[in-house]
Write a structure and sequence with these properties.
Elements lengths: L14 E8 L14 E4 L4 E8 L2 H13 L4 E7 L12
Antiparallel strand pairs: 1-3, 1-4, 2-3
């Protein structure tokens, strides 16, 4: 046994996530959030969207949201076809 706990078929697979926070962030925050795409919604929310390598990285991103005092609205695992294009009209 190698000590890793990966689900069958999930090894080395990057997952896509959408983190919704209240308020608008400037694009300059993208590097702080590990290069996630920042989408500003007309509702006043911001979507941080993109690949997350593993659960530890996801928890790290959520810790950054918390440490910045940003109100977290939701975290959603998304399928590749569900990724929102920043140029799409909402």
């Amino acid at each position: 046994m190698n000590g890793t706990h990966s689900a069958p078929g999930k090894q080395n697979r990057v997952e896509l996530y959408e983190i919704r926070i209240k308020g608008h962030l400037a694009d300059r925050w993208s590097s702080w959030f590990d290069g996630l795409t920042i989408i500003l919604e007309p509702s006043g929310d911001t979507l941080l969207t993109g690949p997350v390598v593993d659960q530890a990285a996801l928890h790290g991103l959520l810790k950054k949201v918390r440490d910045c005092g940003l109100p977290l609205i939701s975290v959603q695992h998304i399928e590749a076809g569900q990724v929102k294009n920043p140029d799409d009209k909402v």
